[in-house]
TrEMBL record:
It is found in: Cell projection; Mitochondrion intermembrane space; Mitochondrion matrix. Belongs to the NDK family. It comes from the Eukaryota. The lineage of its organism: Eukaryota, Metazoa, Chordata, Craniata, Vertebrata. This is Nucleoside diphosphate kinase, mitochondrial. The active site is at 159 (pros-phosphohistidine intermediate). The gene is NME4. GO terms for biological process: CTP biosynthetic process; GTP biosynthetic process; UTP biosynthetic process. Gene3D superfamilies: Nucleoside diphosphate kinase-like domain.
Length: 194
């Protein structure tokens, strides 16, 4: 912590108030920025695609979903609302084409707008899958998004990429590079450093 902010803060304190030390100021404000950049931590720039599905949008759950990811400490780097095309879904759900539920999945996912987001952070893919919960809401633990807000597998409110490799493919399928913002949250020091 530079000496100047400590002196400045002590000058502003009322007479009789004990001056704060540099250690106390560091504790109050988080680690100083020069030491708090998280860019040196491996995996901190990992990204995942999260999409609020049409039922999640209709049920006004967008805010709840964003809130859970934000409060966990992840960082939003891209966000848009869109009416998804069948072409995009055919690529997104390429592994499910032969499933009996695929036609109804397409109808579901095109039934209304979707909110697509890209979230960034350490182990964000795995952590987000844990936060979203099992595909089948009956198997999703209470406290997870699907466990708290959904009942049936065909209306499970939210999508999240299931591996880092799949996440990269899904992000480039849903977003243009120019739609994603590289930025560093000012509280990185508190999230990533003990
Ligand atoms: N019997 C099933 C199985 C799946 N689905 C729908 O198909 C989606 C994709 O299935 P899958 O990829 O297996 O589930 P998740 O990865 O959990 O969901 P998503 O890929 O949408 O995140 C599910 O979320 C669900 O909306 C369905 O309607 N009926
Ligand atoms: N047995 C099923 N019946 C109906 N829909 C399903 C079923 N399995 C999966 N789905 C739908 O397909 C989506 C994608 O499946 P999958 O990628 O396997 O799971 P997840 O969404 O958890 O990644 C699920 O979220 C769900 O909407
Ligand atoms: Mg899936």
């Amino acid at each position: 912590m530079a000496a100047a902010p400590v002196c400045l803060l002590n000058r502003l304190l009322l007479p009789g108030v004990r001056p704060v030390s540099r250690v106390q100021l560091t504790w109050l404000c988080g680690r100083p920025r020069s030491h708090s950049t998280a860019s040196g931590i491996p995996g901190v720039k990992e990204r995942t695609l999260v999409a609020v599905k049409p039922d999640g949008v209709q049920r006004r759950l967008i805010g709840q979903i964003i809130k859970r990811l934000e409060q966990r400490g992840f960082q939003l780097v891209g966000l848009k609302m869109l009416q998804v095309s069948e072409e995009l879904l055919a690529q997104h759900y390429a592994s499910l084409h032969r499933k009996p539920f695929y036609p109804s999945l397409l109808r579901y996912m095109t039934s209304g707008p979707v909110v697509a987001m890209v979230w960034e952070g350490h182990n964000v893919v795995k952590s987000t899958r844990m936060l979203v919960g099992n595909t089948n809401p009956a198997e999703a633990a209470p406290g997870t998004l699907r466990g708290d807000f959904s009942v049936h597998v065909s209306r499970n409110i939210v999508h999240a990429s299931d591996s880092a490799e799949v996440a990269q493919k899904e992000i480039s399928l849903w977003f243009q590079r120019s739609e994603l913002i590289d930025w560093e949250c000012c509280d990185h020091g508190n999230i990533y450093h003990p």
